[in-house]
Amino acid sequence: MDANPGTTIEDRHLIEEASALLDDAVSLRRTLHAHPELGLDLPVTRDTVLASLEGLDLEIWTGAAVSSVVAVLEGDRPGPTTLLRADMDALPMSEDTGLPFASEVPDAMHSCGHDAHTAMLATAARLLSARRDEVAGRIAFMFQPGEEGFGGAKAMLDEGLLTRIGGADRAFAIHVTPLIPSGMVAGRAGAFMASVDTMEAVITGRGGHASMPHDAIDPIPVASEIVLALQTMVTRRIPVFDPVVITVGSIRAGTTSNVIPETAVMDITVRSVSPTSRKVALEGLRRVVEHVASAHMCSAAIRTSQLGYPVTVNDAGAAEHALGVARRLLGPDRVVVMPTPVMAAEDWSFVLEKVPGSMVFLGAAPPGMENPAPNHSNRMVIDETAMVTGIALYAAEALSPSAGPA
After folding, report:
1. Residues catalogued as catalytic
2. What sign does the dihedral 46-98-117-147 (CA atoms) show?
3. CB distance 367 to 163 below 8 Å
4. Which of 3, 194, 277, 350 is an S-S bond match for 15, by CB 3.0 to 4.6 Å?
């Protein structure tokens, strides 16, 4: 990646240093990609990260209950404590990319870019360690397991992350996506990503013979009606400018074609971008499920209900800091202010509830590829040269005392 002609000499040096470290970052990323691990227990990944930090003058410790790594770089003069985060876990799916470094682990794949996040942050730690005399305050590097549904960020907070590093004044994260041109940065203040909650609803009728539905109470058409009623509830009860997405991802019922089953089980997710609409949606979902079932002589029970990740809210000052730094590094034409949040969810939200901070997207679309596969696809690939931007951006966010010019 070439430096933007409008960057300062100092910014240009950061990009040059990140470029010089790219081969090492790519090697680390490919090692992680070939050996993905799931959830909160990532011993191989943790040890790989520790090896990548070996020889740096950092205070390092690992988690007790989860496979986390925290490394702290103490600067040479007073200043803020900056928390930089990378998530390390993979997804439970098979890989079909055909890459020479594709996953060697059955049913596990780095299809959300966490391998790149980890490689970028570990490489940024090396770059910043070489610039210790320029660091004001301290920089904490947070390598987190379990982002994909396990709440690893919350687990690290519960283990005393912030207390251990002496608190944090600001916090920054980067997330790669193949759907944005390589090396571009996108972000926004306020709601950045959605909350996500899950429910399992059980509709109970009365089983019977398929030839005599009048002697049974069939829960399957009732479940089907609930699917449609939930979409109507969303459009009629929730403001269109404070959106909610309800998805019934699975309906499980029955065993064969000539039996009416007794139960139908529905797996549902609710995504929102404000606490108000989140509350309205969750209350409305329960009401619709129970009353539509009752109207058809079925009973309904929400068997499990799990409040998931909160809305990821970027602090206005921290968001402008990250975007301002990116404009200096890349030029204003390579930085986009997003008009709306995205409806995916992130457990970085737990950190942002406690520390003013932000997350940005880093474009990593492979060159020359039309319609690249998105995150969470079995065919997701990235342009590894985009990691230069990520490494330099992590470093510049920590080194810069305030946002650059808009």
Report:
1. 309, 384
2. negative
3. no
4. 3
Name the nearest CA neighbour of 52 among 143, 119, 101.
119
> What would the two tokens of residue 243 be?
């959106």
Dihedral sign computed on CA atoms, order 24, 25, 28, 33? negative
What pTM value is reported for the model?
0.91
Same-domain status, 238 and 211: yes
209: region left, alpha or beta (phi > 0 left; psi from -120 to 50 alpha): beta
**Phi and psi angles of residue 405, each rounded to the nearest 5 degrees, phi first:** -65, 145
Host H or E run for residue 201? strand 190-204
> Do residues 263 and 369 share a domain?
no
Block mean pLDDT (10 aa), the chain, length 406: 54 91 98 98 98 97 97 94 98 97 98 98 98 95 97 97 97 98 98 96 98 98 98 96 96 97 98 95 97 98 88 97 96 96 97 98 95 97 98 97 51
77-87 and 136-144: which strand pairing?
parallel
CB burial of residue 76 (10 Å; 0-12, 13-18, 19+): exposed
CA angle 61, 62, 65 (to 5 degrees): 145
Question: Which of 276, 291, 307 delimits the end of a domain?
Answer: 307
How far from 209 is each of 150, 215, 256, 262, CA to CA, in Å?
42, 8, 11, 11
Residue 121 phi, psi (nearest 5): -70, -40
